[in-house]
């Protein structure tokens, strides 16, 4: 350990260890690394000054995010219109910002809980969770690569219906903390305690939080258009794109519901109302419904929306009264630009197509199609578990998420996006229907298992029949508040004990 006391070696070791966490997530899925990597971080933080702890945590974050969200650079580099040096500079800024949260965790830990068993039993998992929640909220939030997502195929996923991905993260970090305590103390009791969450998980996995509803079986046809992103919004490509989706849909009108991806219609809705009326009529004639992503304008404001057509409760398509879901959580710079009067003139990156959207409501009515109710989440929104949770009611049948990950090419980003969507199904006990432009287009069951998936980067129609569920999971009813309450109360009690 003497070599780690060198002012350079400890941060470099932390960066390498942080990078290992990427291998815990899809497509690699070596989920034990999500326990091992934080455990090594906690060892590196043992008995070092607060400033050294902050630096160590920061470099661990640099390793994690430089590798884990490298896919963001694909979008910036290909569509941002910036020189390579500038695009790499923006990535450095983004990764450095995200690394501040592990740095905050490490600084708070070594400042207020420098030693003792309570540091490992409660302080470490609690502070980690609170810093994760902060990252998911500040500047509209970026809760990507939460440790809990890496456990979607591990036994610890059984905690998701109970307390969401936050509880899975808390338990994962608790296990890592116990392993650290074992290494430091050489007492086997901590190994036994680290096994308790796995034992409890085996029992939780046997609980049926919700019940499958065979009467709700619905056949879906998900159209993956595989439209090149760089050509999608060219005026000359509008009608070829529309006709491609229509051609793929005609052979699948026997499905209960046909689904097109986010902004599948590359036009403002009011400019293609005649076409949409024809689609609506065709769907009705075939006793089917069609859901599509589209751009809508209302009172001079642009909204990224989901539009239902065909067999829907609202009747024949009427542009003025048609129900829609409008995206609430907008992607920074991709869909809105803060301080746009200042930033837009600086670089093409801040003037990407469709980067001036307005927000829909945080909670909106479920979309109704063919008698089925869908809680919607457009693209980036699926990473906000609490928003998805609050839009699910006793009557919700499915979670619907439309996306366009063509921005990120052949990177790991779209695969991580699908992993997050699977967690939403497991948390809420509702199947996820995910339609994308070029992948990952897939359908999960209510336990987050993928039951049908289309290959990426191919024009495909994914057909599958899936049933919904009745009932609500504890997480859907209560969210993460019981866990957060426990964490906050625990930290307050520890604080008072230290003062006394």
TrEMBL record:
Belongs to the CN hydrolase family. Apolipoprotein N-acyltransferase subfamily. PROSITE patterns: CN_HYDROLASE (PS50263). It is a multi-pass membrane protein. PANTHER family: APOLIPOPROTEIN N-ACYLTRANSFERASE. GO terms for cellular component: plasma membrane. It is an enzyme of class 2 (transferase). Its EC number is 2.3.1.269. The chain crosses the membrane at residues 28-45, 52-74, 86-109, 121-146, 158-183, 190-210, 478-496. Pathway: Protein modification; lipoprotein biosynthesis (N-acyl transfer). One of its GO terms (biological process) is lipoprotein biosynthetic process. Coiled coil: none annotated. This is Apolipoprotein N-acyltransferase. Residues 223-468 form the CN hydrolase domain. It comes from the Bacteria.
